[in-house]
Design brief:
Length: about 375
C-alpha cells in the first residue's frame, strides 16, 4: 500500500444538524487539513450541505428519499468515477443502502458508521446492509458495538468502536463564561445548570424541566439553561410557561458559542432517554472541567461512572434529576473532584485527535484488505 492520501466520500442522508452531522462535518475538515480529498454527498436543503459549503468543503447533492433508488445509485457512481473515490463512508440508513450498493458495484471499500444506540433491526434486509454492504463498521462507543455483536450477530472483527472526540483546542479549562453570565444576568445565581443539545424528544429535556420546581424549592436562586434548537423547542417553551418557571429557565435557541455557555455553568446535564452513543457534549463539558449529570441511556455510562466521573441517574426520572442537582450543589468539592477525574479520562481517550487517528487507521485497514484481494 502506498502512502498517498486517499479520497473519501462521506454520505449523509439526514437533513438535520445534531451530533452525527456535526461529527461528519468536523471529521471532513480535519481530513482535508491532513491532505485527504473529501467529498460530502448530502441532500438539498440539509444543514450539512450549507455548513460544508461555507467551510469550503466539496459537496455533491444527491436525492436520498428512498433506501433503493436507481437514480441515486447512478449519481453516486458518477461521483465515485469523477472524483476517483477510494473509500465510501456512510452514516445514515438510506445513504448506507444507496452508497453501499454503489461501493459494491464500483469495487471500492465501504465503511459504515453507526452513531446511535437505538437497536438495529434484526430483519434480513437490515442484516444485509451491515453484513454485506459494509466492509467495516465504526460504532460511536462499545455499547453499540456490543449490541451489534450480541443482538445482530455481526462478526466482532468487523466492528471498531471509535467514540466522538472533543477538540481540546476549543473546549478546555481556559474558556471563560463571564460574557454568558453577564448576557443572561446570572452573576448572583447558583447553581447554574445547563444542557446543550438538539431539542429532540429523546434528549429528555421535558424530564429536566419537571425537576426544576423541586430544585427551586431548596435553591430559589438556581438558573437553568437549555441551549439548542430543534423540533421540541416550542413544546418545551410551553412546558416552561405551564410550570411557571419562566424566570428561572433560559432557552437560548441555537448558539455558536457553546464552549462559553458550558464554561458559564456550575454543572452540565444530559437527560437523554434513548439513542445516545457516548455523546459529544459530555466530553466537551468534562474537557472544560464541569461536573456532569447524565442518564444511564445508551453508551453514556462508558464515560460517566456514577460518583467517579459524574453522577449517573435513571432516565425519565425528574426526582432523580432534582436529587442529583441538589447533591452536586451541596457537595461542591466532591463535584469538582468528579469533574477532574472525568476530564482526565477525556484527555486520555476521547480527544478529537484520537478519533481522527483511529478513523484513518480504519481507512488504511480496508485499503490493505482491498490490495490483498487484488
Amino acid at each position: 500500500m502506498t502512502n498517498r492520501k486517499l479520497t473519501i466520500l462521506h454520505t449523509e442522508a439526514s437533513k438535520g444538524w445534531g451530533g452525527q452531522e456535526i461529527r461528519v462535518f468536523h471529521e471532513s475538515l480535519r481530513l482535508t487539513a491532513l491532505g485527504y480529498k473529501v467529498v460530502i454527498a448530502c441532500q438539498y436543503g440539509s444543514k450539512l450541505s450549507e455548513n460544508a459549503r461555507k467551510a469550503g468543503l466539496a459537496v455533491s447533492i444527491v436525492r436520498m428519499e428512498y433506501p433503493i433508488a436507481l437514480f441515486a445509485v447512478m449519481k453516486f457512481l458518477k461521483i465515485v468515477r469523477d472524483e476517483k473515490v477510494d473509500i465510501v463512508h456512510t452514516h445514515s440508513s438510506k445513504d448506507s443502502w444507496l452508497a453501499g450498493i454503489t461501493g459494491r458495484i464500483a469495487g471500492i471499500p465501504v465503511v459504515r458508521s453507526r452513531h446511535l444506540s437505538t437497536p438495529v433491526g434484526q430483519n434480513r434486509l437490515t442484516s444485509f446492509v451491515y453484513s454485506h454492504l459494509a466492509d467495516i463498521i465504526i460504532t460511536s462507543g462499545m455499547h453499540i458495538r456490543n449490541a451489534l455483536i450480541t443482538r445482530n450477530r455481526i462478526e466482532p472483527e468487523k466492528i471498531v468502536s471509535i467514540p466522538a472526540g472533543v477538540d481540546t483546542d476549543i473546549f478546555n479549562a481556559n474558556i471563560k463564561g463571564d460574557k454568558i453570565r453577564a448576557e443572561f444576568h446570572l452573576e448572583n445565581s447558583y447553581p447554574i445548570v445547563g444542557s446543550v443539545a438538539i431539542l429532540r424528544h429523546w434528549k429528555g429535556h421535558r424530564f429536566f424541566l419537571e425537576a426544576v420546581p423541586q430544585v427551586l424549592a431548596f435553591l430559589p436562586e438556581a438558573k437553568f439553561i437549555i441551549a439548542g434548537d430543534g423540533p421540541q423547542f416550542d413544546n418545551l417553551k410551553q412546558q416552561v410557561a405551564g410550570l411557571g418557571i419562566e424566570k428561572n429557565v433560559i432557552m437560548t435557541g441555537f448558539r455558536n458559542d457553546v464552549p462559553e455557555i458550558m464554561a458559564a455553568l456550575d454543572m452540565f446535564i444530559l437527560p437523554s432517554i434513548a439513542s445516545e452513543a457516548t455523546s459529544q457534549v459530555i466530553p466537551q463539558a468534562l474537557a472544560i472541567g464541569k461536573p456532569v449529570i447524565a442518564t444511564d441511556a445508551g453508551g453514556l455510562s462508558e464515560i460517566i461512572e456514577d460518583n467517579v466521573t459524574g453522577l449517573l441517574i435513571p432516565p425519565k426520572n425528574p426526582d432523580a434529576i432534582a436529587g442529583a442537582i441538589l447533591k452536586m450543589a451541596k457537595h461542591k468539592e466532591q463535584a469538582m473532584e468528579m469533574a477532574a477525574r472525568g476530564r482526565e479520562k477525556i484527555l486520555k481517550g476521547y480527544t478529537f485527535d484520537h478519533m481522527i487517528n483511529s478513523t484513518i487507521a480504519v481507512y488504511n485497514r480496508v485499503m490493505e484488505k482491498k490490495s490483498e484481494k487484488n
